[in-house]
Design goal:
Elements: E1 3-7, H1 12-23, E2 27-32, H2 40-48, E3 54-57, H3 63-73, E4 77-80, H4 87-92, H5 94-114, E5 119-125, H6 148-172, E6 181-187, E7 189-191, H7 210-218, E8 225-228, E9 240-241, E10 243-245, H8 246-262, E11 267-271, E12 277-278, H9 279-290, E13 296-299, E14 308-309, H10 314-320, H11 328-341
The structure holds nicotinamide-adenine-dinucleotide and UDP-4-deoxy-4-formamido-beta-L-arabinopyranose (WQD).
Nicotinamide-adenine-dinucleotide binds near residues 8, 12 and 59.
Subunit structure: Homodimer.
Catalytic activity: UDP-alpha-D-glucose = UDP-alpha-D-galactose
EC number: 5.1.3.2
């Protein structure tokens, strides 16, 4: 049985991917330091999982801990989710973001190299496209970073590409043996929750992202949504994004991992639906799914936001045989089930 190490395993996207990987027949071992997650996730996963939940509490910046984990479990591949992800916080605490996101990535790659495990699936983001010049976004569109968080994703991708360059040089110089294979997955806007309602997104403090905020308004934890900008050049004036169900995203990781294990080479692909929805589209869909009203007020634009962003998902279909299946109504229904069954998240 092939063993896969998940870093940041107790987090939102990783916890859903954990179940998808187990269902696909992989042995999964998770590591997390709970910097932005709760140990309760592991209990919930144990209820849902088709196989035992194997977990080690570890910080990916701790080389000695990683050596222990690699030595004990001997994974064939790593899915690297561990990172901080709040854009605003990255602007006020850039060093913490560079240390954790880039230090953690380099440390994980070094441990992989020491243990001869050279396959990594990396959590990248559509944030690497900066302000899109053309839509839909193809993987060959220009990239840029507008904040330190985005810079860590751009640089993370670069680090993995550079490992490939170093391998190519070594092979040209006569070196044989296995080489790095990496998959950079550029997620668009992950939303929704597991259909059981037992795991989902549980942001700490005020949610930064739209759907968790809307969910907390619908459940009565917050009075109303502030809609950031009503004067964008979009059909209804509000920002347009490519929302993707976290379950579809999880399946995208399974497909990427399978590809790395079966086929030589590395890849960078979008994981999105290819369909854009506005803030008000999402509010209306959430009201329909929850049967609750979601009061909102249009306020000033949020600095750094782009008007519209959606994926061209064709490359992922071609290379991975993967495409998103679940629609916006289903994203809202599953988010709502999670939210109203767990009004205060995991606690
Ligand atoms: P999350 O915060 O729920 O999950 C990240 C997990 O990593 C958390 O459980 C956290 O405790 C853990 N972690 C952080 N630093 C760690 C460290 N040093 N050692 C061990 N564990 C550590 O976030 P998520 O939304 O599930 O995101 C997962 C990945 O996907 C991140 O890399 C994020 O940047 C990326 N991403 C997320 C989105 C999004 O909108 N959610 C979009 C694009 C990319
Ligand atoms: C979506 C839309 C907002 C909150 C961010 C990161 C990106 C990626 C995903 C990690 C926009 C509007 C939001 C609110 C609102 N993360 N909005 N009121 O900005 O597309 O992407 O998360 O990689 O890097 O930047 O997602 O959910 O914050 O916003 O009106 O209270 O909702 O203006 O149009 P975004 P989001």
């Amino acid at each position: 049985m092939t063993t896969v190490l998940l870093t940041g395993a107790a987090g939102y996207i990783a916890s859903h991917t954990w179940l998808a990987l187990q269902r696909a027949g992989y042995r999964v071992v998770g590591v997390d330091n709970f910097a932005n997650s709760s140990p309760v996730v592991l209990e919930r996963l144990a209820e849902l999982a088709p196989a035992p939940i194997e977990f080690e509490r570890a910080d990916v910046c701790d080389a000695a801990m990683l050596d222990e984990v690699f030595g004990s479990y001997r994974p064939a591949a790593v899915v690297h989710f561990a990172a901080y992800k709040a854009v605003g916080e990255s602007v006020s605490q850039p060093l913490a973001y560079y240390r954790n996101n880039l230090g953690g990535l380099v440390n994980t790659c070094e441990a992989m190299k020491r243990h001869g495990c050279l396959r990594m699936v990396f959590s990248s983001s559509a944030t690497v496209y900066g302000a899109p010049e053309q839509l839909p976004l193809r993987e060959d569109a220009p990239t840029s970073a507008t904040n330190p968080y985005g810079a860590t994703k751009l640089m993370g991708e670069q680090i993995l590409r550079d490992l490939g360059v170093a391998d190519a040089l070594a092979i040209k110089g006569g070196a044989a043996g296995p080489a790095w294979q990496t998959a950079c997955l550029r997620y668009f806007n992950p939303v929704g929750a597991h259909e059981s309602g037992r795991i989902g997104e549980d942001p700490r403090g005020t949610p930064n992202n739209l759907m968790p905020y809307v969910a907390q308004v619908a459940v009565g934890r917050r009075d109303k949504l502030s809609v950031f900008g009503g004067d964008y050049p979009t059909p209804d004036g509000t920002g347009v994004r490519d929302y993707i169900h976290v379950t579809d995203l999880a399946e995208g990781h399974v497909a990427a991992l399978r590809r790395l294990l079966d086929t030589p080479g590395s890849l960078t692909v979008n994981l999105g639906t290819g369909q854009g929805y506005s803030v008000l589209d999402l509010v209306r869909a959430y009201e329909a799914a929850s049967g609750r009203s979601v009061p909102y007020e249009i306020v000033a634009r949020r600095p750094g936001d782009v008007a519209a962003c959606w994926a061209d998902p064709a490359l992922a279909r071609e290379l991975l045989g993967w495409q998103a299946r679940l629609d916006l109504a289903r994203m809202c229904e599953d988010s709502w089930r999670w939210q109203h069954l767990n009004p205060h998240g995991f606690n």
